[in-house]
C-alpha cells in the first residue's frame, strides 16, 4: 500500500510530493504520539521522546521514499552526506566556528554601540557551553538534513537553483513561524530573519558542491553562539527605553527593540538582519566561485 502511494506521488509536482510525504509521516507518527502522551507524564521528556521518534521515523521513511520514488539506493548521499568523514567533520567544524563567531561579533558590535554589555561568565558556564554545543550540533544536523537535505533534493528535481534556494528558505521560515496571529503581527521581522537564515544555509550548501557538512556546522554554530549569550548570560541588553536624554524620551545607549531584536531575538532585529545579509553576500560569492570552477 505504501509502495503504491509513493509511486503515485512520484508522478506529481514537487510541492505535492512534499505534502504527500509529510502527511504520510504524520499519519504514521500519530499513533506513537498518542501512546507516548499517555505513557510519559513529564512534559519535557515526553516532548524529547516524541521528537526523537518523529526524526527516526523520518530517517526510516525517507529511505523507502528515495528507493521507490527516485530509485536512489543511497538517499542520504544524494541529500549531501558525502565526501568522506574527514571532509564532513572539517566543513562542519568550520561552519560551527563561523556560526558562533557571527553571533559573538554581532553582540560585540551592540556592546561597542552601548546597546548591550558583556558579563563575566558565572559558575557552571563550562557545563552550559558543552550543553549548548550538543544542542547546536543536534539541531544543525536534524534540521539541515530535513530542509537542505531532503526538501532541497526534492525541489531541485523540478526547479532551478534560485527557486530551490528561495522556496526552501520560505518553507523553513513558515514552519518555524507557526504562532498565534497577534504574535505574528508583533514579531513579524523574525519571519524575514528566518527567510534570510534559510537563504544563508542554502548558499552554504551550494558553496561546498551540495555537501551538508558546512550548513550543518553553520546552523549549529549559530544556535551554540546564541545559547552562550542567552542561557550562559554572556551579554546583557540595555533595559527598555525609560529615562530621557535631552528631552528625547530615549535613555543614553538605549534603542527600540526592532533594532537589537524583539524579545531579544537577533532574527527579529535590524542588527541581526544586517549581519545575515552580510553573511549571505559572502556565501553567495563563494557559491559563484564554486560554480565557475565546475
Could you explain the architecture of this structure?
This protein is an all-alpha fold. Helices cover 72% and strands 2% of the residues. It has helices spanning 2-9, 14-39, 43-69, 75-79, 85-112, 125-156, 161-175, 181-186, 189-206, 213-230, 257-260, 270-293; strands at 116-118, 235-237. The longest helix is centred in the middle third of the chain and has 32 residues, at 125-156. The termini are far apart. Mean pLDDT is 90; it is low at 242-252.
Distinctive features:
two-stranded antiparallel sheet, 294 residues, 2 strands, single chain, mainly alpha
What's the structural blueprint in terms of helices and strands?
Blueprint: H1 2-9, H2 14-39, H3 43-69, H4 75-79, H5 85-112, E1 116-118, H6 125-156, H7 161-175, H8 181-186, H9 189-206, H10 213-230, E2 235-237, H11 257-260, H12 270-293
Helix pairs in contact: 2-3, 5-10, 6-7, 6-10, 7-9, 9-10, 9-12
Amino acid at each position: 500500500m505504501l509502495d503504491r502511494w509513493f509511486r503515485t506521488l512520484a508522478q506529481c509536482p514537487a510541492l505535492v510530493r512534499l505534502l504527500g510525504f509529510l502527511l504520510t509521516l504524520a499519519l504514521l507518527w500519530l499513533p506513537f504520539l498518542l501512546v507516548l502522551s499517555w505513557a510519559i507524564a513529564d512534559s519535557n521528556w515526553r516532548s524529547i521522546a516524541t521528537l526523537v521518534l518523529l526524526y527516526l521515523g523520518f530517517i526510516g521513511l525517507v529511505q523507502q521514499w528515495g528507493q521507490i520514488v527516485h530509485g536512489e539506493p543511497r538517499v542520504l548521499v544524494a541529500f549531501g552526506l558525502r565526501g568522506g568523514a574527514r571532509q564532513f567533520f572539517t566543513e562542519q567544524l568550520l561552519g560551527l566556528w563561523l556560526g558562533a563567531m557571527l553571533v559573538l561579533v554581532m553582540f560585540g558590535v551592540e556592546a561597542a554601540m552601548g546597546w548591550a554589555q558583556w558579563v563575566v561568565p558565572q559558575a557552571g558556564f563550562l557545563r552550559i557551553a558543552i550543553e549548548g554545543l550538543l544542542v547546536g550540533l543536534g539541531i544543525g544536523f536534524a534540521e539541515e538534513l530535513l530542509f537542505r537535505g531532503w526538501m532541497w533534493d526534492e525541489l531541485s528535481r523540478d526547479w532551478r537553483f534560485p527557486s530551490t534556494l528561495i522556496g526552501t528558505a520560505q518553507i523553513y521560515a513558515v514552519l518555524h513561524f507557526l504562532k498565534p496571529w497577534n504574535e505574528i503581527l508583533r514579531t513579524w521581522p523574525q519571519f524575514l530573519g528566518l527567510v534570510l537564515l534559510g537563504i544563508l544555509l542554502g548558499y552554504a550548501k551550494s558553496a561546498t558542491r551540495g555537501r551538508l557538512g558546512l550548513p550543518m556546522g553553520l546552523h549549529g554554530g549559530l544556535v551554540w553562539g546564541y545559547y552562550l549569550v542567552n542561557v550562559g548570560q554572556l551579554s546583557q541588553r540595555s533595559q527598555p527605553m525609560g529615562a530621557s536624554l535631552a528631552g528625547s524620551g530615549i535613555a543614553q545607549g538605549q534603542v527600540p527593540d526592532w533594532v537589537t531584536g524583539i524579545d531579544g531575538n537577533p532574527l527579529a532585529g535590524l542588527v541581526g538582519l544586517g549581519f545575515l545579509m552580510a553573511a549571505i553576500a559572502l556565501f553567495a560569492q563563494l557559491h559563484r566561485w564554486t560554480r565557475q570552477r565546475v
